[in-house]
TrEMBL record:
Substrate binds at residues 175, 212. Pathway: Carbohydrate biosynthesis; gluconeogenesis; Carbohydrate degradation; glycolysis; D-glyceraldehyde 3-phosphate from glycerone phosphate: step 1/1; Carbohydrate metabolism. Keywords: Cytoplasm, Gluconeogenesis, Glycolysis, Isomerase. This is Triosephosphate isomerase. The gene is tpiA. The lineage of its organism: Bacteria, Pseudomonadati, Pseudomonadota, Alphaproteobacteria, Hyphomicrobiales. NCBIfam families: PRK00042.2-1, tim.
């Protein structure tokens, strides 16, 4: 079974103390699949990265950051560089979330600079792409996100793109007012993203789905063969929530496993 990715971005939530409690709780409930069939990750705010790294210890939980600047250093008040993130030995960095595009003026061009800087520093970019409600209504979802992926990876080699992750997060599906994509709808966009990544020479880049993932829809989304992981917000902001999602998603994923020929012939 290929690795299935399940993780949570905490957005602007959780103090250092809350982070320590979450990780202690997560370690106490750690599912057997974590680290083996399932790459489990958490993305706390910058202020909690040091505490998170210490609290995770040797547990099979990957650590990510929510953003970074593309420059090595300089007069960029309030920004965080890749070298600063390296100090926390983070495993991945989330780039291009639609909230950053909408509220902080991120563009495909600046996301491309960030992806390049992350890879220069050996950080795995988790590139978020998403279609708007208008693009969805016009039947242009796949075209919109394929364009974003092409621009995010412009100028990169196949090998560099191959070290990345992509998250499909429909803008209309995210947050309190969002409506989750149906597994069919998400699956079709994931197929288009996989095709685009194949054309870019990086067919094995995992494509995760995010946007109102919850306990009711996690299994059906995970059962879509083109969905390689779930990127969860609210439903995983408790360790119990994250672990419950892992168990539902992984059970669904295991049912996808092809039946070995010996089992069929043995009757
Ligand atoms: O970033 C997200 C996952 O961390 C995403 O925005 C989904 O949030 P949710 O709708 O609260 O699951």
């Amino acid at each position: 079974m290929s690795t299935f990715w399940i993780g949570t971005g905490w957005k602007m939530n959780k103090t250092v103390a809350e982070t320590r409690r979450y990780i202690a709780d997560l370690k106490a409930r750690l599912p057997d699949e974590a680290g083996a069939d399932c790459a489990l990750f958490i993305i706390p705010p910058f202020t909690a990265l040091a505490a998170a790294r210490e609290a995770i210890g040797a547990a099979p939980v990957l650590l990510g950051a929510q953003n970074m600047h593309w420059a090595e250093a300089g007069a960029y008040t309030g920004e965080i560089s890749a070298s600063m993130l390296e100090e926390f030995r983070i495993d991945l960095v989330e780039l291009g979330h639609s909230e950053r595009r909408e509220y902080f003026g991120e563009t495909d061009a600046t996301i491309n600079l960030k992806v390049k800087a992350a890879l220069r520093h050996g950080l795995r970019p988790l590139v978020c792409v998403g279609d708007s409600a208008e693009e969805r209504a016009a039947g242009a979802s796949a075209a919109a996100v394929v364009r974003q992926v092409r621009l995010a990876f412009a100028g990169l080699t196949r090998a560099e793109i191959g070290r990345s992750l992509v998250a499909y997060e429909p803008v209309w599906a995210i947050g309190e007012s969002g409506m989750p994509a149906t597994p069919d709808e998400a699956g079709a966009v994931h197929v288009a993203l996989h095709d685009a990544l194949k054309e870019l020479g990086a067919p094995s880049v995992p494509v995760l789905y995010g946007g109102s993932v919850n306990l009711e829809n996690a299994a059906a989304l995970a059962a879509e063969p083109a969905i390689d992981g779930l990127f969860v917000g609210r439903a995983a902001w408790s360790a119990e929530g994250l672990v419950s999602l892992v168990s539902r998603a992984m059970a669904a994923r295991k049912r996808l496993r092809p039946v070995p020929t010996e089992a069929i012939t043995a009757g």
